[in-house]
């Protein structure tokens, strides 16, 4: 069976690729040769940020965890550059596609795929520590009470000299306050993921949605910062350049570094942020 025939067979058995347009052979793509692949561009950006902030000439040999990896495009791109990648996803059809692409590109030895729900504690017992943990397009699909447990597990699996990359949508305003089971206050807005009567099979078929929760909670930038700090990241920053820009302002990338803040003991960011947008004297000086 040729690679094109295998590709068609997987599309027939498991549905078309919906997210990651991977060139698996010369001129053969998982989706189409026409649209640019956003996952590839983001993977290149993540690799560049890792080289800069971890002070490395390359990402070769780095162990990378890709949470909610979808069809594996980000992991596959990083593995092509020599990284050792582990992708976790709850949907088996995604991992079948990821495994096929990795094998077609002859990098399957640098890719591991784990099927599981990252909101369940047992999945974290199956993995070791990583130099880089990527949480891309995932956090904004979680229920409010799943956010801190995920970030705590993310911190546990991120080496002390490592880096966490959070690529997520955020709420533009502090519309709603949620107090988590741990007593932490998170501000943001709710997002509907599924109607309550959706079946197990229907949930699995929703490639770009949550799995177990019907409603998600989008954090504001300040609450995202506070949540990361609460979970053991002492420095959180957002790179303005280089960048990947979406067609809306609600999504961006944050970098989180394990450890204590310097100086130690800073309070969390205040929220809601009621400061004026401009310097109070600016209008008088015009």
What is the CATH fold-level name? Rossmann fold
Main structural class: alpha/beta
Give the N-terminus to C-terminus distance in angstroms.
72 Å
Q: From the alpha-carbon coordinates, what is the Rg to the nearest angstrom?
A: 20 Å
State the major sheet. Answer: 7 strands, mixed
Strand order of the largest sheet: 5-4-3-6-7-12-11
Name of the CATH superfamily: Vaccinia Virus protein VP39
Q: What percentage of the residues does DSSP assign to strands (E)?
A: 15-25%
Helix content: 25-40%
The count of domains is: 1
* Tally of helical runs: 7
Summarize the structure.
The chain is of the alpha/beta class and 286 residues long. It contains seven helices and twelve strands. The chain has a single domain, classed as 3-Layer(aba) Sandwich (Rossmann fold), CATH 3.40.50.150.
List keywords for this structure.
three-stranded antiparallel β-sheet; about 290 residues; globular; alpha/beta; Rossmann fold; single chain
Fold and architecture overview:
- The chain is of the alpha/beta class and 286 residues long.
- It has a single domain, classed as Vaccinia Virus protein VP39 (Rossmann fold, 3-Layer(aba) Sandwich).
- The chain is 27% helix and 24% strand.
- The chain contains 7 helices and 12 strands.
- A hairpin with a 2-residue loop joins β1 and β2.
- α1 packs antiparallel against α4 (92-104) and α2 packs across α3.
- The radius of gyration is 20 Å and the shape is globular.
């Amino acid at each position: 069976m040729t690679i094109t025939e295998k590709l068609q067979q997987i599309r027939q058995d498991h549905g078309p690729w919906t997210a990651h347009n991977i060139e698996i052979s010369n001129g053969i793509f998982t989706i189409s040769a026409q649209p640019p692949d956003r996952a590839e561009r983001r993977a290149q950006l993540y690799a560049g940020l890792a080289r800069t902030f971890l002070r490395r000439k390359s990402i070769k040999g780095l162990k990378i965890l890709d949470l909610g990896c979808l069809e594996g495009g980000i992991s596959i791109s990083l593995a092509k550059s020599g990284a050792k990648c582990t992708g976790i996803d709850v949907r088996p059809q995604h991992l079948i596609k990821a495994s096929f692409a990795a094998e077609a590109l002859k990098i399957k030895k640098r890719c591991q795929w784990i099927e599981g729900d990252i909101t369940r504690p047992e999945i974290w017992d199956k993995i070791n520590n990583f130099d880089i943990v990527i949480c891309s397009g995932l956090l904004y699909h979680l229920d409010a009470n799943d956010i801190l447990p995920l970030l705590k597990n993310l911190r546990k699996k991120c080496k002390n000299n490592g880096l966490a990359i959070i690529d997520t949508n955020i709420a533009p305003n502090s519309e709603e306050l949620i107090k988590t089971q741990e007593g932490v206050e998170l501000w943001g807005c709710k997002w509907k993921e599924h109607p309550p009567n959706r079946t197990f099979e229907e949930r699995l078929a929703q490639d770009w949605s949550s799995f177990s929760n019907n409603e998600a909670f989008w954090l504001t930038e300040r609450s995202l910062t506070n949540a990361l700090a609460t979970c053991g990241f002492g420095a959180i920053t957002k790179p303005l350049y280089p960048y990947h820009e979406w067609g809306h302002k609600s999504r961006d990338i944050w970098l989180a570094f394990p450890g204590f803040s310097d100086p130690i003991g800073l309070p969390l960011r205040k929220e809601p942020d009621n400061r004026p947008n401009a310097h109070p004297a600016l209008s008088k000086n015009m």
